[in-house]
Every structure is written in structure tokens, then in C-alpha cells.
Write a structure and sequence with these properties.
By secondary structure, this protein is of the alpha+beta class. It has a domain of about 100 residues: Aminopeptidase. Helices cover about 30% and strands about 35% of the residues. It is built from four helices and seven strands; from the N terminus they run βααβββαβαββ. It has a seven-stranded mixed beta sheet. β4, α3 and β5 form a beta-alpha-beta unit. It is globular. It starts with 5 loop residues before the first strand and ends with a strand.
Length: about 150
């Protein structure tokens, strides 16, 4: 590991190889490369990467409509978890949300994903619903969480 700072920067197409290397290790049902390639063309999609030097150590993808945002993906390299990378990404997303007038942020998370639930709760997300048998790999439930600027 290097002593270089971690910077949150906009996604560039050259970042996709490193992102996909993280994706397949971080998720039991990873998104396909084609999914990312299709999504980057949409104006409502924003992808940010956490870089330490030239190494991508995490990333996130969110989408917004009007005054609402949905966090679709946030991931860090498995060996770099619990080093504050998710925190940096979340803080960046909420700052960006504030700059564009977002009032609410939604996300889905596996019911058993304690590390992610801890991160989201730390930032004031609350459970507002459940999607039963949402995940196709094991039919696990997804919790629908919301962060509300007005609460």
C-alpha cells in the first residue's frame, strides 16, 4: 500500500478494466461489463472512482431524476475494505447531491450485508421498505433505504 492520498475522480473509459476486476470480486452477482458500457452513455448516470495513484481502490455509480438520487453500486477492493474508502465515496456522493439540489437518496442493500448497512446507517439512511427475494443468485431480500435531506 502507498502513502499517496485517495482521490475521488470522475470515471474515464480506461478505468473500466480495474473496476470490473473489483466488481467480480466484490459481488456474488456482479454487473456485466456491457451493463457499465451501456450506462455510461446516459446523462443521468454518474460514476466516480477512488484512486490512489493509478490504482482504483473503489468506485460508485448513481443515477438521479429531479430531486432524487439512487445509488446503484458502491464497491471497494476486498483487501482495502475498512480503510475509509467507502466513507470517502459516500461523502463525495452526498456532497454532489447537495450541489445539485437532491432531497432524497435511495439504495438497495442485501439484508445480510452488515458492513454496508453500517456505512449507510452512519450517514443517516433508514430502512423504508423491503424487496422480497430480490437477489437472483440466492433469492435474498433487499432492504430499501433512504436518506432524506429534510430529516
Amino acid at each position: 500500500m502507498t502513502d499517496e492520498p485517495i482521490n475521488i475522480v470522475r470515471f474515464e473509459p480506461d478505468d473500466l478494466d480495474q473496476m470490473m476486476a473489483i466488481e467480480v470480486r466484490a459481488f456474488t452477482a456482479p454487473w456485466s461489463r456491457q451493463s457499465y458500457e451501456d450506462l455510461v452513455t446516459l446523462d443521468s448516470i454518474h460514476i466516480w472512482v477512488a484512486k490512489q495513484g493509478d490504482e482504483i481502490v473503489g468506485y460508485m455509480l448513481y443515477q438521479f431524476w429531479g430531486d432524487e438520487l439512487e445509488l446503484h453500486v458502491i464497491a471497494t477492493k476486498p483487501e482495502r475494505q475498512k480503510q475509509g474508502i467507502g466513507t470517502l465515496l459516500m461523502e463525495h456522493m452526498l456532497t454532489q447531491a447537495g450541489l445539485i439540489g437532491i432531497r432524497r437518496v435511495y439504495l438497495l442493500v442485501r439484508q445480510t450485508n452488515e458492513p454496508a448497512l453500517g456505512l449507510y446507517k452512519k450517514y443517516g439512511f433508514t430502512v423504508v421498505g423491503m424487496r422480497h427475494k430480490y437477489y437472483r443468485d440466492n433469492a435474498e431480500n433487499a432492504l430499501l433505504m433512504c436518506w432524506d435531506r429534510d430529516k
